[in-house]
Amino acid sequence: MNTNITPSESALLSRIASNSAKVITSIEKTDSQFRVHYKQFGGSGSEAIIYSLGGSMVEAAQKIVELKKAIA
Length: 72
What we know:
Strand content: 25-35%
Number of strands: 3
Oligomer: single chain
Largest sheet: 3 strands, antiparallel
Helix content: 40-55%
């Protein structure tokens, strides 16, 4: 995985950070996506740049399996 931030990733991060209502809680960067998670007005949200939809779906499925194991 490349840990360098691209100009488009930097722009997304800057846009979210410039909104005073949004508090960034975490940033994910994988081979298939760059995602910024934030809290806003008591709720949570995220915005992403998806590089590979299939890869992103596989990652999401793996996270679901891990969560199921954690709560079982």
